[in-house]
Amino acid sequence: MTRPRRLPFARALPGVGPWSAGALVIAGLVAMPVIAVIWMAFFPRENIWPHLISTTLPRYLTNTLILTVGTGLLSAAVGSGAAWLVSMYRFPMSRLLEWLLFLPLAIPAYVGAYALVDFLDYSGPVQTGMREAFGWASARDYWFPDIRSRWAAVVVLSAALYPYVYMLSRAAFRDQPAGSYEVARALGAGPIGLFWRLGLPLARPAIAAGAAIAMMETIADFGVVDFFAVQTLTTGVFSTWLEAGNAGGAAQIAVVMLGIILFLVALERLGRRRQRFYHSARQPRPIARIPLPGLAGWAATFLCAVPFVVGFVLPLSVIASHAFEKPEVWVSPGLTRALVHTLTVGGTAAVLTVAGALFMVYGVRLTGRRLPRLILPVTVIGYAAPGAVLAVGILIPLAALDHGVADLWTWLTGNDPGLILTGSAAAIVYAYAVRFFAVAQGAADAAFGRISPSLPMAARSLGRTAGGALREVYLPLMRSSVGAALLLVFVDCVKELPATLLLRPFNYDTLATRVHEKASLENLAEASPPALLVIGVGLIAVAFLAHANRGAPGR
After folding, report:
1. Residues 316 and 374 in one domain
2. Total domains present in the chain
3. CA angle 62, 66, 71 (to 5 degrees)
4. Which of 406, 450, 434, 426 has its CA nearest to residue 504?
5. Do the domain assignments include residue 8?
6. CA-CA distance, 357 to 141, in Å (whole number)?
7. Could you report the per-residue pLDDT of 407-437, keeping only the tens digit for each?
């Protein structure tokens, strides 16, 4: 077999050829923003760490921890409970609800926040109807909970994020053999005992993984906490950087966020470390769903319908009602421009991210050496890093590079080219690529692993180069996986808000930033069309995920 040609500078590195060297470069680009944040945090121009600790940091940290723990617990309870009901029981609409429970994934959490406030606020239909029904004249005549609060933020975030737990725990429940439950029932275990003593322990790794994702997304959130005026570490990054003008302080807060994220990842993996569950060699019988007659069945329907209604029906109904009350908002020039920008940066980022992931995974597989393989886990850190953290680590180094290049070009030619990277959408594309590189890498690694090694070996023996084997053997067989990765990365880019807000050039709106801008001004009518477009894109991804997770239903 022809070995990859080695680069001149790589001769001192055994086994490092063009493909593996390119993989190392890609890994460095992905990891650079996180490294830059850590560097700025420990070596800031102006150290405001003592000031942060004595003033705002405790409040940011307390609110972040309350939201994170609350969202994690509520998402785990709702997601695992709904997954248990649809996996183990037959009740009215159970087959339909099994798929409807995926749909809240299409609703960005910040859109759910705008809808909830519009529905439950003083001027909303709920409180207006209460005043008309009971003859109350003002808010002094009755008590109603404050909507813009931490508890409301927990509800909104949980309604948007519980599908992560539902998707993983549903798969875990469905993969468990029916014989285990039959034995437990024969020994006298009731419905609650089956869940607490058998189902929950066996599915705990999946539930923990889903809850960890929900908690990491909560830490990364900006739209919900900003709209509800809850000061968290993410809002602290924005205020310290944009209002106080201190990038080093923002980096120090960002490092605290990274520390919490890494702690969650380590805790989730530690919880699964000693857990091993195996099936027998024979194909296990699927679980036979137990019919729930009468009131018990309708109670199960109600319990499964509540998260779907709160997480999908309510936000979609509120947003759609505003969007179609004033049809003229659909022809706003700002909306068209935001749509074009979204398609441009999202599509570019998706193509570059998937191409980079394919190149890197292929390069690592070609070399078979230890060093390139060690870089694979490093490249997934961007997915764990919140968008605000990546923005801090991207904008400062890119701005310095931009100014250096501009000064050099001006000195050489006498013409000022301006800021090429930070003055355009290039920084946004870079942030998207780093943030969602793990999604593309996971899809690429899994796709390569499904192809028999004999096929590319045959191509290489017939004289094909490494690039030729990739083009003529791998890519045709990986077409569906590559398309799925492009779709998932693009959808995530469309919904990303914090990084876009911090990195966009002046007057450069995407659909997500337009929704945030209009909703922050209490102009939900103009925020609704871009919100519906974001939801529509999200529904495409949810349909794909539901199709990928359909499996064989229990009887």
Report:
1. no
2. 2
3. 150
4. 426
5. no
6. 60
7. 888 888 878 777 777 778 889 999 999 999 8
